[in-house]
Design goal:
Largest sheet: 3 strands, antiparallel
Low-confidence stretches: 1-6, 16-24, 309-329, 334-338
Shape: elongated
Structural class: alpha+beta
Number of strands: 13
Strand content: 15-25%
Oligomer: single chain
Number of helices: 12
Distance between the termini: 80 Å
Helix content: 40-55%
Strand order of the largest sheet: 3-4-13
Length: 381
């Protein structure tokens, strides 16, 4: 078959997936005995929120600029372009930072994001376009290999939106070309393990930090019948379940712990592993999500100085408080060799400053302590 127009691709359909997945972009995950929506997972899973918020806030800090290409190494910045104005002020209730933050957050949670175009008259009287975020759980693209329109369901009512009215962002999905596959689907088992570990730990503290176990009675004592055992169990749970009372056993009875300790079950190590996997899924270096086991001095400095690793330093400086913009007229790209030389020189300067600070600061503290001891005064802090 030869497809000559895009309308033919919009009419084609894709085969249904062979495994269970929700049909809308909202989606949900089956976490053991519970079924949570993606938004609920973001609200309750710390590792997911740490990664998503890190990307969203840092990317939103980087301003969006509009340029006109002059040559391969030269650009002219367009400050008064309509696109720059629309992104700078998307709508009266949303700033550029919040718009980009919500965009990256939706992509990190759903791998789909939607902006509604609102056509209006700008302050100068010219036609303008406002941008409003649409919740992905309320949107569903329709079509085949290409979308034809969008169904927006809000308060139980569905409204059809044409392609020209929506700015659509989606990621890759091998099963559906219209909607991206959420990273939470890939993290299904890790998130289920985190939810089960949290439930177990909460039950541990609700039980007055007592590990579950069993009570044994001497074999010489007469056995309880079914009703007596149930009555004894109910009385025992009423007295000692979830409280801090001291357990009082009858003569000859012994209490044996029936579960592993937090150390034996590797609770802390398992939690760190789950955070590492979530960070790897979102391609975030471990030191930036609080895992500092193998972090270097340079990584610590970059975590506190740069909004996002890998960004050009000129862009980072331009969006810091009091930073200098890289030029409002033209931006020229440095050659590869100059960039490497500058990078090596800056690395040497940072290392030299760190060594001077560590050595000089230690000597200065030692001298101040000795002088204060001779004068009988406490050392300055």
């Amino acid at each position: 078959m030869i497809v000559r127009t895009f309308d033919g691709l919009q009419a084609l359909t894709t085969p249904p997936p062979t495994w269970q997945m929700s049909g809308s972009s909202a989606g949900s995950l089956h976490l053991y005995d519970y079924r949570h929506t993606y938004a609920e997972i973001y609200r309750t899973q710390p590792n997911v929120r740490i990664c998503v918020d890190f990307l969203a806030r840092n990317i939103a800090h980087v301003g969006l600029q509009v340029f006109r290409r002059v040559s391969d190494t030269d650009r002219v910045r367009l400050v008064d372009h309509d696109l720059a104005k629309w992104l700078g002020r998307p709508n009266p209730a949303t700033t550029r930072f919040r718009l980009i933050e919500s965009l990256v957050s939706d992509l990190g949670i759903y791998f789909n994001a939607y902006w509604l175009k609102v056509r209006h008259r700008g302050g100068d009287g010219r036609p303008a376009i406002g941008l409003v975020r649409l919740p992905p759980e309320e949107m569903e693209p329709k079509g085949g290999l290409l979308p034809t329109h969008f169904d927006w369901t809000v308060n139980g009512r569905m409204q059809r939106l044409e392609l020209s009215e929506v700015v659509y962002f989606n990621g890759y999905n091998p099963l559906n070309p219209l909607m991206g596959l959420s990273p939470l689907e890939t993290l299904r088992r890790i998130l289920a393990e985190e939810a089960a570990a949290g439930e177990h730990r909460e039950g541990f503290w609700r039980n007055a930090s007592r590990a579950p176990g069993f009570i044994t009675r001497p074999k010489e004592v007469k056995r309880y019948n079914k009703d007596q055992a149930a009555d004894w169990r109910a009385q025992f749970q009423a007295l000692y379940g979830g409280t801090s009372n001291t357990m009082l056993l009858q003569e000859g009875e012994t209490y044996t712990q029936g579960s592993f300790s937090a150390k034996d079950s590797e609770y802390t190590i398992g939690g760190k592993l789950r955070r590492e996997v979530c960070a790897a899924e979102y391609q975030i270096p471990q030191p930036f999500v609080g895992i500092l086991d193998h972090a270097t001095l340079q990584q610590h400095q970059r975590a506190t100085q740069e909004p996002l690793p890998g960004l050009p330093r000129a862009v980072v400086r331009a969006h810091r408080p009091g930073g200098r913009a890289p030029g409002s007229d033209r931006v020229r790209r440095p050659t590869r060799r100059v960039s490497r030389v500058q990078h090596r020189g800056q690395a040497r300067r940072q290392l030299r400053r760190a060594v001077e600070f560590a050595v000089g600061g230690g000597r200065q503290a030692l001298h101040e302590g000795q002088r204060s001891a001779r004068e009988g005064q406490p050392p300055a802090r």
